Amino acid sequence: MSTATITVSQRSSGLRDAVASEWTKLWTVRSSWLNLVAGVALTGLLAMQYGFSTAYDNEHLEPGELAEKAAVGGVAVSVTVIAQVIVAAFAMLTVTSEYATGSIRSTLQWTPVRRNVVLAKAIVLAPVLFAYALGLGVIAAIVGGVTMGQWADWDLATLVVDLVSVALYLTLAGLITTGLAFVIKSTAGTLTAAFLLLIVIPMMLAQSNITPLVWIAALLPGGAGQNYLNGSTDPLSPTASFLVLALWAIGSLSLGTKLLQRRDA
């Protein structure tokens, strides 16, 4: 008499399996690759425009004005103001696309420890976002420097500092957006919130002469990011601004984890 054998596959609830799953999902969806292409194209175009504008301004000076070279790393910093939306969208889509298609239910079924879902996405996204942002920074610096021509300052030490700063900021901005995506769940809503927090509200408040509003701008992700990138000490030092960004990232992911654990998918 033969004995029937039943094999039961266990759900992969561990963090290691969740990380492997998130890595696979990230690179097997078309939206990730389309975002990379869009990011490279937008960065190149913005850097080109910045470089040509700098060269034109230096060659058409008013009487008494002196031409000055511009650091190529500064092009990467300037381009970040717009390119950060593309990077934020890259991070956001890893969450909102699952809610849109309903695949979040499968994700939670196979990773029942829900905090591991958020943690796995953060673990996968952090190095990817850093590399993505660093690549965009390099493209911006090279394209901007070439189009500036003789007016480009290629100081290596300054360039490295600017590129690493851009990569760190965009990594944290992406993680903040990831946390917001778990809170809001929709693509349009998350992108709107990120756009407001990273660009619109900080930019509007920073132009005010009212001290409390300037402080609010500096404590928002976009304002803290610009202070950090520009090396500004008013009203916060670059180090303090970086800490503000880190706290936003931790807080956003923590809130997203808490809500994911409490509500239905």
How would you characterize the overall build of this protein?
- There is one protein chain.
- Strands 1-2 form a two-stranded parallel sheet.
- It is 78% helix and 2% strand.
- It is mainly alpha-helical and 265 residues long.
- It is built from ten helices and two strands; from the N terminus they run ααβαααβααααα.
- It has a domain at 15-197.
- The N and C termini lie far apart (47 Å).
- It is globular.
- The chain has helices at 15-27, 30-59, 72-101, 104-110, 114-148, 156-184, 187-206, 211-219, 221-230, 238-262; strands at residues 70-71, 152-153.
Short description:
The protein is mainly alpha-helical. Helices cover 78% and strands 2% of the residues.
Question: What keyword list fits this structure?
Answer:
78% helix, two-stranded parallel sheet, 10 helices, 265 residues, disordered N terminus, 2 strands, 2% strand, mainly alpha
Roughly what percent helix? over 70%
Chain-averaged pLDDT: 91
The sequence of SSEs as H and E is HHEHHHEHHHHH
Report low-confidence residues grouped into runs of 5 or more: 1-12
Quickly count the helices: 10
